[in-house]
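Instructor's aside before we start: the two examples that follow are unrelated to each other. I chose them only because their records fit on one page, so don't look for a connection. First example below.
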Amino acid sequence: MRFASGVLVWNDGALHPLETAIEDTPAVTIDTTHQINRIGEQFVELSAFSGDMEMLERLLAAEESVQDFAVTRETGLAYMVYSQSPSMTSLFYILTAYSLVLAPPIEYTDEYTDRGIRLTVVGTDSAITQITADIPPGIDLYPERVGEYVPGGGQLEDLLTERQRDVFEAAVKLGYYEVPREATHEEIAEAVERAPATVSEQLQRIEANLLPRYLDKEAI
């Protein structure tokens, strides 16, 4: 059983029903979709947001396509039921056409040309090969990793994308995690030929992926 992970960028920029409203409201950011299901023409989603949760509730209440929602302000989690999403409709069309399973979470990222979603799909080797060649027009694919799927894999290569591993390895090599710190985001960015803002975001995601697993192991 094989998996493939990468970033999809919709050329029209419509990633999520709230995307336009969120872009106009810097106080709220969508970070990760933990679960999403399609039920008929509706989508049911559990996502994590950061920022002003009262503003998020106002945005959800004002969005015509959102039929129901609940927000847990303490954690930033939002449960949403909505009826319109061209990007999610095309995503589920792809999954169905190639008999692929979506392995959450879905992460929103600015690492490539435009804002996109990083996801992992699981299926046969032939399906994985075919999907990378047959991405529909209007969607750009940035492949990152392909390999044998292991549920809950805990190795570094399972937890980080190739681009994140490059940043992490450069950060360690340059002394970013030494005390006192011996490298800056700008120096790491120069080493991996990326923008400092991108490196900053990737380091945050790396730490968010690795630290909870380390703490879980320590607690056993």
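Example two begins here.
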Amino acid sequence: MVLEDECDSVFEPQITEEYVDTLFGKVHCIMNGTPRVNRPVILTFHDVGLNHKTCFETLFNHEDMQEIIKHIPVCHVEAPGQHEGAKTLPTAYTYPTMDQLSEALPAVLKHFGLRSVIALGVGAGAYILAKFALNHPDQVDGLVLININPNAEGLIDSVANKITEWTHTLPDTVIAHLFGKEEIQTNHDLIATFRHHITTTMNQSNVSQFFHSYNSRGALEVERPVPEENINFRTLKCSTLLVVGDNSPAVEAVVDCNSKLNPTKTTLLKMADCGGLPQVDQPAKVTEAFKYFIQGMGYMSSAGMTRLRSRTTSSSSISSFDGSRSRSHTNDLQRGRTHSQSTEEKRGRSQTDVSTESFRNMGQSISKTTEVAC
């Protein structure tokens, strides 16, 4: 399916803000644009300590993203009590688990009359959307998961979190969840901005409940299918793009998630010189990857995106975690010259220096399991 329309030079989508009743309480939703029959909607879900503005505003306000949202409406979903200026949740209210929050999403789709979505989530939101895709595969066309952690919290992590709760304020704990140590120590302006958002626009009690729900999550029950073995396995069935900054505290978790997913449908984008929130730190690169991901699914196949096409970007290196697959998948994407081997070759990875045109071609082979470092 190709999504293409004649668009006005000035694009002003209709914005609808509603509270949607679900089995687990009201969720705050913002529909940006008008849903259309037989077309997907971008469905977003934020991370802990954030809302749709602080998590996604930088990305969706970026000039390069305007081409995408002209064609595809966006529905932002906020967890109970996490919207800006939210009142403290009632004492009798039991905060939903991660599984329950994922099961609240069908009510959102029904409310807005959505048949399918391209889901974009960060951290806790990424986990919720992945769970939703596992349980409702017919309603999810594609997944873009930033900083996803597919694992349950271990005993050591649980003890460490308890100690952190005793010795740190909630904003400090959330900041440590969102950003890596190096970023916290060096990017003072960014950290100060998000600390201000957390302390002044978010309800601390509600954030604490959402954080506790996330830390109490179970493992995401997925496993990588074994070739030529006729077994029942549970995995994400849609095309999936995993994104993480190389300075993010979630790097190991995202790499682990990639190792557990279907290799024919998963791409890992590891962004160099990028911190805990790639969509905030490098929105242009995330937009570019998102656009080619959408094109790889068959949408917006001939959309202009002139800024993206004319922008000169630094070369990207593409590698695969499995040596045998690495050669075949790299051949699908390789258009540049062979790059000198990096220290990651110690793990058996092959490196390639790829031109912008080659990265653009990722849209045609997005179903390959690759690691893209850009």
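The longest helix spans residues 98-112.
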